[in-house]
Amino acid sequence: MKVSFGTAIKLGLTNGRLSYDPKTAYLLLGSNCKFHCSYCGINSSQIARVRWPDYPSKVVIDKLKQANFKRVCLQLSSDGIDEALDLVGKLPFPRSVCIRTKDLERIKTFFSSGADTVAIPLDAVTPEISRQVKRGEWFETLELLKTAANLFPKRIWTHLIIGLGEKEEETVHLMQRLHTLGVGISLFSFVPVSGTPLEHQSHPSINSYRRIQIARWLIENEAQSKFEFNSRGELVNFSTPSRDAFLTCGCKDCDRLYYDSSPTHPYNFPEVNEEQYQKAVNEAKTWRGKSTYKAEKLIRVKVEYSARITKINITGDFFLYPEKQIEKIERALSGAPVDKKIINEIISEGLEGAKPFGFSSEDLTFAIMEAIK
Fold first, then answer.
1. What gap in Å lies between CA 97 and CA 91, rounded to an integer?
2. Which of 3, 50, 185, 259 is the most buried (most CB within 10 A)?
3. Would you list the domain boundaries of the chain?
């Protein structure tokens, strides 16, 4: 069977260093998946950014019996189901099973064989994205989640991959729906896997991922039921969560820290100190916007902001003399509160003594506010 690299280190199957003591062992059963999702490299022994070296099953089971894990997570490809059913009753810890299936009876069989929880991944947030990435069966999977969660309360989970093209608003609404159905939610950030059709696609914005983490925490703790979104479908005006919002989310004791992000900038944490917590909250409360506005000439604005503007870039077809005056305006706006009146005052002051051609201070203020709204 295949074992995640971190699990293999803790079991003494390979050499390496761990930055934390993992609580969950991750095993991958099967090697030839019949599905061909555009983001997954399971057929080349790689899921997300984690390598899964192969070891004899008996060796792994014997090592597990001596280890101090608190949970074992079995992740199955389509040809690993029989092996998993044989194995699940032999493992010494609570067992989680992650399986793509449309068969309710198969889920019942895993529970009767000793599984503690079963995860049925949706992966994509919308049916349209599911089709685009060749995941498919979105509605059937959602219906199965609904039925299974009704039969096995608090024991059914699903996975959502953030960064496949969804909007935050779509994700929040889906998470609310899943929570109402009684389905637990595990979040993953998309990671480009070499050799897959999406190998050149970028990771999701850390700012966006942090907001989704917060929304999931607020929903599952029933701390907020109504959410607001800006014109880009991004979450705004949300309650500040506890630091638990940024922990790896999944079945009890799940802590797949580097499964979908690097050690230098983790998207999920096995534990969160105060510095990491404050940074994560600040990341969540940072947005990026852009606009193109046609005054007499074209104005283009890119802006990063929280309660204040942190970065801004202004370009376009307009002219401004002296030429470097626009850079002075950008510097003056950096740190300014997101307030239309104050922004206009800063721009007006920056244009004093200058000669703008093709725009006014009001035009530039409007373009900036369009990028922010």
1. 12
2. 3
3. 2-284, 288-372
Run of H or E including 303: strand 298-305
Burial 361-370 (b: 16+ CB within 10 A, else e): bebbbbbbbb
User: In terms of pTM, does the model score above 0.85?
Assistant: yes
Which among 229, 266, 262, 220 has a CA at the least distance from the CA of 246?
266
Q: What CATH code is assigned to 2-284? A: 3.20.20.70
pLDDT truncated to tens, each residue of the chain (373 aa)? Answer: 999 988 999 999 999 988 888 999 999 998 778 788 888 877 555 555 567 889 999 999 999 999 999 999 999 988 889 999 999 988 889 999 999 999 999 999 999 999 999 999 999 999 999 999 999 899 999 999 999 999 999 999 999 999 999 999 999 999 999 999 999 999 999 988 888 999 999 999 999 999 999 999 999 999 999 999 999 999 999 999 999 999 999 888 898 766 677 667 889 998 899 999 999 999 999 999 999 999 999 999 999 999 999 999 999 999 999 989 999 999 999 999 999 999 999 999 999 999 999 999 999 999 999 999 9
Query: Three-state SS string across 19-70, please?
Result: CCCCCEEEEEECCCCCCCCCCCEHHHCEECCEECCECCHHHHHHHHHHCCCC
